Amino acid sequence: MTAPAVLLDASGLIAAQRQFAAERDWQRFHTPRNLMLALTGEVGELAELFQWRTDAEAAAMADEPQAFERLQEEIADVMMYLVRLADVCGVDLDHALQDKLHKNALKYPAAGRE
């Protein structure tokens, strides 16, 4: 499997988050541990949107304006904390994604390509 040149360019989000944190003097709070705990909380809020819904109801959230807005917000929260955590930990997300996709392709080959 040949990986694309760039899978994810999060540089704009990284820069925006760095600026947002700096303007509020929040860098001191953005430790890997604190960011991981915040990320876990946001994933919980995302999971709550799906709790007690059937698969069909979950798939139909796009048709419910309020539910869809909350879905977008929670996914954005998860993404922002994940990207911030990667930045603080020095993880190059594009490299990490390319590496993991390559490893997954080797571990789980497509049918008939073993």
Key descriptive features of the protein:
114 residues, mainly alpha, 5 helices, 68% helix, dCTP_Pyrophosphatase, DCTPP, Nucleotide pyrophosphohydrolase
Structure described in brief:
With 114 residues, the protein is mainly α.
Can you describe this structure?
- It is a single chain.
- The protein has 114 residues and is mostly helical.
- It contains five helices and no strands.
- It has helices spanning 11-23, 32-50, 55-59, 65-89, 93-107.
- Helix 1 (11-23) packs across helix 4 and helix 2 packs antiparallel against helix 4 (65-89).
- The longest helix is centred in the last third of the chain and has 25 residues, at 65-89.
- The protein starts with 10 loop residues before the first helix and ends in a 7-residue tail after the last helix.
Count of DSSP H/I helices: 5
- Distance between the amino and carboxyl termini: 12 Å
What is the average of the pLDDT values? 93
User: Which H/E pattern describes the elements?
Assistant: HHHHH
Report the count of strand segments.
0
Beta percentage is: under 5%
The helical percent reads 55-70%
Show unreliable segments. Answer: none
Counting helices, strands and paired strands, the structural category is: mainly alpha
Query: Largest beta sheet, briefly?
Result: none
CA-atom Rg in angstroms: 17 Å
Give the CA-based shape. Answer: globular
Organism: Vogesella alkaliphila
InterPro entries: dCTP_Pyrophosphatase, DCTPP
Protein name: Nucleotide pyrophosphohydrolase
Pfam family, one: MazG-like
